[in-house]
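Session log. Operator J.P. requested a structure for one protein chain; no other inputs attached. Running the standard single-chain path with token output.
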Amino acid sequence: MAAPKKIHLNRAEKELHIVFDDAEYTLSAEYLRVFSPSAEVRGHGASEPVLVSGKLNVGIESVETAGRYALKIVFDDGHDSGIYTWDYLRELGAQYENNWNAYLNRLQAAGKGRDPDESAIKIIG
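Structure written below.
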């Protein structure tokens, strides 16, 4: 897989913009964080990835190249162990809608949310 022509980190918007020869994608920090290719998220041989919740406000501290084949993304919640290959970044961009909807459905089914301050138990009065 060819490296992207351009990678732009917009910290204020919490987005990573990636331009390939034939496609371009803008991926949110939250999306990249919950779909991290790290063992922490992918699991250790599990068939279903670990459900990461409460990352609505996560940002990206830095982006570094990892050789000529990938990016290392350092998030402001301390997560920094995922290596995002060019193929995986392209897949994340191309499959965004399906991935995101499946993620939201998994959150709902687990009674979890995107907001770290959300609680499954609401007390009124």
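Operator note: Residues 6-110 form a domain with the NE0471 N-terminal domain-like fold (CATH 3.30.2020.30).
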